């Protein structure tokens, strides 16, 4: 038994992965494995339970076969030499190859400053596998490599492995599950030993790009001393990488590129990549600004758009505007790319490419990175792969010790969650940087997956030009001070190769400075350049406010919304919803909220307006009111078990897309914002599961949605649906925090509305698309009102009129009213019910449906309708320090007449949005209603 184990043991246990890999190679090409292994695997095709004569069989029978043959007796006579020691060495060679493919990057020469010691990795040492110097000349089978030989001495193999995986380019890819992708990388790398072979002209072009990168930074440093610009010096190879990426993408058929990046090197990209006129940038340094923007922004936040010439024809570049929140631009870029792909009919992402540029510390530290990566392979958010470039200056802000900046080996390790390959490259070897860029783009175009280029470099200056990094990294900056610069090193390298003469590099630098003084472009031919990033609306929009739809069309739409395919089995509860909607469409019963919404969507897509609605439960909706997607009860959804009526409204309708998003707020909302600015003719809606879930995306709300227009001129029609209502469900399920949105309201930047019946949501959604108003829309949507029998509308209400900013009291006698209660949302129905219980003819109740822009003239007109009006009360569910009270006070007080009094009815100020006890909620609710109809507790005189 021991003899049997001795002859076969090297095939099992820790060596099983080797057998598995060898078998994969055999399936791909039987000639790629040795004759002994080929004979064994050929025999395996006839193993009982191994699917007969099929070539590509399940691996579990193969593995079981190994174990069974080992149990029955020796098999080395079939597959290996009788010399067991030699057999073990052959396996060890394969394990050594696998080790270099897996972790060879850990020994790569990546640090331009040469500060990092090479880690001890026994797996990469021949001695770890029992090899000695006497084994170096033994010839082994290497047919599963791409080094060009089926056999070679161990010495030669080791040299090839180290050149390929441990040079200035170190690559991580073996964690990829797909064998085809792994072999693609092995072939790409091993056939050239990870070494570029560029022409003389190519090398000169790389030097020219390095000269432009360095020359631009040094020019700014001397001309605009002390001004912030977030210099790229030390990471100059990044410009060579971007240049190669764009030119190669154009050659590959890419038509548009959207770029997202933070501050480091941004000005350099604007001039040396995007083609912005240097004189325009210099004027901004000297104080020039856009007169048409109320706020504007600093230079290193600005976006830009240009068309450049490439070998494949013109390519459109867009650099997204980005605030100081670093990586927050990532999902915005992905959304903008998705919209452009949809517009082009680019289903796989071949024509529109996203490029995201990161800092090392932000890439490992910002949560939005993970959230955005998690979108990459989903149906609703995938963009066919993103090329990520990390400008890895090894310091972050002031933390150069990785033990303080991350818990992973590399700052890029987070991308392993989506199996994205990473190319770590030494920034002082610009040819390797360009080679890495070529391979990254080729991989993205071939497999439509994310890929990362990690340019390890340094930061010559501080975080900004007013920072002194030597205070916190003294030894690091001593080395940086002694560094001659990447351009100089590369120029000397080309001189030594005889590619350029001794004066060529200096003359190139001198000429570039002259060009900057003259305001000449340093990029490839610039066809068009401009500061616009967004697309302009093209659909038929007008200023008319009428949003009604003819009654006959509403009935036709209702029929299509309730038409079920033959043989499609609905859930009984959904079947009842559909039956009720059919009756609503015939005018046999009032419309509920879901039907009002559906008719708005249906009329829009029938009229040529695409709709995209996403959220964590948007198909059904959190409170099961929408049911935009029907699910066949007899089929799973991946077996065509779904039906979406809104996609079947008319023959030539616009698209309707509804997506149940990943469990993310920040990345998903950023994506939808980016989509909205690139698709102005699409109604783009993000729906929070509960309104306060917007808290997780507050950065997007503050820095993009509410301020993007005044800072950057970005117009967006993004709509946010935020469920809001005090139902006794606790602090996290009550408030959409309307006060936060109202605090951000100024300069007509957004719309904040709280519709209270189905007709209102119908007209509001249609208004968002059919008028010229292109502003973000915040809708505080209800919860209990979704099924409240009082919160209904008639079909005729949708056939005429428009969204009503204020809904007056149609039942109160104007000549008798002495107190006016103004409110918004659900509390209106509580107030109406209380008034009916205690008949009070002197009280009128109105609803303010649009909180901002506040309809001041309409509100004043309502007050003027009541000649005996003495008291005005604002009533709200929310605590006094939240909701609308503090925002609306000055509007209401300015509309009041002399002698009128102003009061508040609602909850007391609270640190929490709502109480968590249902009994306490009921007490508070009764108290605020008592207060609304009782004596004032707080008065304000005009």
List keywords for this structure.
942 residues, alpha/beta, Rossmann fold, nine-stranded mixed beta sheet, seven-stranded mixed beta sheet, 26 strands, globular, disordered N terminus, disordered C terminus
**Beta strand %:** 5-15%
Major beta sheet summary: 9 strands, mixed
Note the overall shape: globular
Low-confidence segments, given as residue ranges, are 1-14, 47-54, 72-82, 938-942
Tally of DSSP helical segments: 32
Secondary structure: elements and pairs:
Blueprint: H1 2-8, H2 16-28, H3 35-44, H4 59-72, H5 76-79, H6 84-103, E1 139-141, E2 151-153, H7 154-165, E3 169-172, H8 179-190, H9 200-223, H10 237-251, E4 256-261, H11 266-272, H12 278-285, E5 304-308, E6 315-319, H13 329-344, E7 352-359, H14 360-365, H15 367-373, E8 387-392, H16 402-405, E9 422-426, H17 430-447, E10 451-456, H18 474-482, H19 486-497, H20 504-518, E11 526-530, H21 551-561, H22 572-585, H23 593-606, E12 611-615, E13 630-631, E14 642-643, E15 656-660, H24 666-678, E16 683-687, H25 698-705, H26 708-712, E17 719-723, H27 738-743, E18 751-753, H28 758-770, E19 777-781, E20 806-807, E21 819-823, H29 827-837, E22 843-848, E23 850-852, H30 856-864, E24 871-879, H31 885-895, E25 901-907, H32 918-933, E26 940-941
Parallel strand pairs: 4-6, 4-7, 7-8, 8-10, 9-10, 12-15, 12-16, 16-17, 17-19, 18-19, 21-22, 21-24, 24-25
Antiparallel strand pairs: 1-2, 3-9, 5-6, 5-11, 13-14, 18-23, 20-22, 25-26
């Amino acid at each position: 038994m021991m003899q049997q184990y001795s002859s076969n043991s090297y095939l099992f246990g820790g060596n099983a992965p080797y057998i598995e890999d060898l078998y994969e190679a055999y399936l791909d090409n039987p000639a790629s494995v040795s004759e002994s292994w080929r004979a064994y695997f050929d025999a395996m095709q006839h193993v009982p339970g191994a699917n007969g004569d099929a070539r590509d069989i399940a691996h579990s029978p193969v593995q079981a076969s190994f174990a069974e043959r080992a149990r029955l007796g020796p098999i080395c006579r079939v597959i290996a030499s009788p010399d067991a020691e030699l057999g073990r060495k052959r396996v060890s060679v394969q394990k050594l190859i696998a080790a270099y493919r897996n972790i060879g990057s850990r020994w790569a020469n990546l640090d331009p400053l040469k500060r990092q010691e090479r880690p001890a990795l026994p797996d990469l040492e021949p001695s770890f596998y029992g090899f000695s110097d006497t084994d170096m000349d033994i010839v082994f089978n290497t047919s599963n490599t791409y080094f060009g030989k089926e056999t070679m001495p161990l010495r030669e193999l080791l040299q090839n492995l180290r050149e390929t995986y441990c040079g200035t380019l170190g690559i991580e890819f073996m964690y990829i599950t797909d064998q085809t992708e792994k072999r693609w990388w092995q072939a790409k790398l091993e056939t050239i030993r990870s070494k570029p072979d560029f022409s003389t002209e190519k090398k000169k072009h790389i030097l020219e790009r390095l000269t432009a990168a360095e020359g631009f930074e040094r020019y700014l440093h001397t001309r605009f001393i002390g001004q912030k610009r977030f210099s790229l010096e030390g990471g100059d190879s990044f410009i060579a990488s971007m240049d190669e990426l764009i030119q190669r993408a154009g050659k590959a058929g890419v038509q548009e590129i959207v770029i997202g990046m933070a501050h480091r090197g941004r000005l350099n990209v604007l001039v040396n990549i995007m083609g912005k006129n240097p004189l325009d940038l210099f004027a901004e340094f000297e104080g020039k600004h856009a007169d048409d923007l109320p706020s504007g922004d600093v230079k290193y936040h600005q976006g830009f758009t240009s068309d450049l010439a490439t070998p494949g024809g013109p390519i459109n570049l867009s650099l997204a505007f980005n605030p100081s929140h670093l990586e927050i631009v990532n999902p915005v870029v992905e959304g903008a790319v998705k919209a452009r792909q949809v517009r082009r009919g680019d289903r796989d992402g071949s024509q529109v490419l996203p490029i995201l540029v990161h800092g090392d510390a932000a890439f490992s530290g910002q949560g939005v990175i993970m959230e955005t990566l998690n979108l990459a392979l989903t149906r609703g958010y995938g963009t066919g792969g993103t090329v990520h470039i990390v400008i890895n200056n090894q310091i972050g802000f002031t933390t150069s010790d990785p033990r303080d900046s991350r818990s992973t080996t590399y700052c890029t390790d987070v991308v392993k969650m989506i199996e994205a390959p990473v190319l770590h490259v030494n920034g002082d070897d610009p040819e390797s940087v360009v080679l890495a860029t070529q391979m990254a783009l080729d991989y993205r175009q071939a497999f439509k997956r994310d890929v990362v280029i990690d340019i390890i470099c340094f930061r010559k200056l501080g975080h900004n030009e007013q920072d002194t990094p030597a205070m916190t990294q003294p030894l690091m900056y001593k080395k940086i001070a002694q560094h001659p610069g990447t351009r100089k090193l590369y120029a000397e390298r080309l001189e030594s190769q005889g590619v350029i003469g001794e004066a060529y590099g200096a003359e190139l630098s001198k000429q570039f400075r002259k060009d900057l003084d003259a305001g000449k472009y340093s990029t490839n031919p610039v066809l068009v350049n401009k500061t616009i990033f967004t697309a302009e609306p093209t659909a038929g929009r007008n200023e008319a406010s009428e949003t009604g739809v003819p009654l006959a069309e509403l009935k036709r739409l209702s029929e299509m919304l309730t038409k079920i395919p033959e043989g499609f089995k609905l859930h009984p509860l959904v079947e009842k919803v559909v039956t009720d909607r059919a009756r609503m469409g015939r005018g046999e019963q009032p419309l509920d909220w879901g039907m009002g919404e559906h008719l708005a969507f249906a009329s829009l897509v029938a009229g040529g307006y695409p709709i995209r609605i996403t959220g964590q439960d948007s198909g059904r909706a959190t409170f099961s009111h929408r049911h935009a997607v029907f699910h066949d009860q007899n089929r799973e959804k991946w077996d065509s078990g779904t039906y979406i009526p809104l996609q079947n409204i008319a023959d030539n309708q616009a698209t309707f897309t509804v997506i149940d998003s990943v469990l993310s707020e920040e990345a998903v909302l950023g994506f939808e914002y980016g989509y909205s600015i690139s698709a102005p003719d699409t109604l783009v809606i993000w729906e929070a599961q509960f309104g306060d879930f917007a808290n997780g995306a507050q950065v997007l709300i503050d820095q993009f949605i509410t301020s993007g227009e005044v800072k950057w001129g970005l117009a967006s029609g993004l709509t946010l649906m935020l469920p809001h209502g005090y139902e006794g469900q606790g602090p996290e399920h009550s408030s959409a925090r309307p006060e936060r949105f109202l605090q951000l309201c100024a300069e007509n930047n957004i719309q904040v509305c709280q519709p209270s019946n189905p007709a209102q949501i119908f007209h509001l959604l249609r208004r968002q698309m059919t008028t010229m108003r292109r502003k973000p829309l915040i809708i505080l949507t209800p919860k209990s009102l979704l099924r409240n029998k009082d919160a209904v509308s008639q079909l005729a209400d949708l056939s005429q009129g428009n969204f009503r900013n204020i809904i007056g009291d149609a039942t109160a006698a104007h000549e008798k009213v002495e107190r006016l209660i103004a409110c918004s949302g659900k509390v209106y129905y509580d107030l109406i019910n209380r008034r009916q219980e205690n008949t009070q003819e002197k009280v009128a109740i109105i609803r303010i449906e649009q909180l901002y822009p506040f309809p001041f003239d309409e509100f004043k007109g309502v007050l003027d309708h009541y000649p005996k009006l003495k008291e005005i009360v604002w009533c709200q569910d929310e605590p006094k320090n939240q909701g609308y009270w503090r925002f609306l006070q000055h509007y209401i007080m300015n509309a009041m007449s002399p002698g009128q009094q102003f009061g508040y009815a609602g909850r007391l100020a609270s640190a929490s949005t709502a109480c968590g006890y249902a009994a306490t909620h009921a007490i508070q609710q009764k108290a605020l209603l008592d207060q609304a109809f009782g004596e004032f507790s707080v008065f304000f005189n005009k």
